[in-house]
Amino acid sequence: MIDRAGLAEFLRNRREALQPEDVGLPRGSRRRTTGLRREEVASLCNMSTDYYARLERERGPQPSNQMLASIAQGLHLSLDERDHLFRLAGHNPPARGASSDHISPGLLRVLDRLNDTPAEIVTELGETLRQTPMGVALTGDTTRYTGPARSTGYRWFTDPAARRIHAPEDHPFLSRMYASGLREIVTLRGPDSRAAHLADLLLACSDEFRQVWADHEIGIRPHEVKHFVHPEVGALELTCQRLVDPGQAHSLLVYTAVPGSESYEKLQVLSVIGTQTLR
Predict the structure, then answer these.
(1) What is the CATH code of the structural domain delimited by 4-94?
(2) pLDDT tens across 235-247, in order?
(3) pLDDT tens track for 247-260
(4) C-alpha distances in angstroms, 73 versus 66, 130, 183, 202?
(5) Does domain 105-273 have CATH number 3.30.450.180?
(6) I need a surface site. Which of 97, 105, 209, 229 has the fewest CB within 10 A?
């Protein structure tokens, strides 16, 4: 059963504890609010201000699991705080670990400070959970996919459009890398895991995947320098740095170019173009 008073108090407490800079928002010169405003939290949680405000006022319908997950992420809750939120709202908390999409507050804080840099947070299966605006400008909105297509590796073998942003000479290596990485995760997580389900789907629908899977290659790691082919700015040579959250099996990927290089200049152009050509 939902604890409306407890839920409202908890939400107000966590909202007032957050500052704009904690979530990547400008503070402004006339701010008098303690913590974040309700409309700011609602925007971070991808819901209407009215819906969020009713929760803080002990009104409205019982939030769904999906709504609670959005609130937990928008308020940068820890896993313990997320689980507490779900229980206050009368739901069992989601699973933790590799199958969880909940991003740790620390990883979110780092991402929030990278708005001018291409960056994304991904799961161990290559499912994009969050991107910076420049990340969307570089690769398109990869959070929009559902089902198996959420996985970059799955799209690589099933959707020709997934390959267009990578230099053709890199395609054979990337095919081997995705198959190798998936095999490692299947071994780690077991035959009943989501990774094993993805492998079964790919074995059933992709001749290329069957060929590279049969080689049983292990330990093929991504190259630090990646070659992209952007539809507007052309070839880009970017260094990828990875920050790993082992507790959640999530990684923050940050893409940068050598200062003064041609790719560096193209990133500056891309920051102006934004996502207007990738909608």
Answers:
(1) 1.10.260.40
(2) 999 999 999 988 8
(3) 888 999 999 999 99
(4) 11, 10, 30, 31
(5) yes
(6) 97
